[in-house]
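Quick one:
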Amino acid sequence: MGFTKTSDELARYFDFGARQFVGAQMMGVMFQTKPEIVARLLPPPLEPTGMPGGLIFIAQYPETNLGPGYREAALYLNCQYAGEMGTYCLSMPIDSEPNRMHNGRDIFGLPKKMASIHLEREDKRVYGYVERLGVRFVEIELTLSGELEQVPPTGPSFTFKASPRIDLTPGFDGPVLLCRQQTDVAMKRFEIGMPQVTLRPSVADPWAEVEIENVMIGFFMLSDNTMQPGSVVAEVEAESFVPYYFKMTDFNVGDGKDGGND
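Output:
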């Protein structure tokens, strides 16, 4: 293949469609946090729900239809848009081949960054962590105690797509787009227990900013996931989105105070 793709290559790419993750293994926690934290972190026009909380997961994808499997983690907040309940992704570390990061960032607007991710299970004990730039900023240990036959259906995920201005002034070249994407989860097994969750301060990955007031449930699940194509649902006022954009990068202004990298 060359720099410019042929019509046949383009047809094969765009006919590919949904992304599939067979035999996904995922540990996670559903939690409650403070309403003021959710209100501060949700970009408009996303709005809080009646349940200020969210989801943390650490996952192993053994097999995908895009190539070799990989590991991933994420921090989501509950939100709503136009009356539809969903989630908003604050952070999505990934431990994979580099091209998997750009696929999620460029197409779906997911805030992916390369990291070291660990997930293991031994009998009823499940343990996982995410480490990046020398900080193990999330660590979860879970002892499983039961199993659920049915779980509630998952709602959509809302993301934003934007391109910062090339003249290095505040704003974006082109519109800021609010997008909606649904992942279908064919559940095979859903085990539950009470976890221990540790969030450590990190300048580049400030998960600890989301204070966990109450852990509602910990889980370990096995499923086949299908990431469906998304859609653009609205154009967002660009100036108001500027403070929220920088979760996509390691914020760095060159004075040594932020500890980040471009």
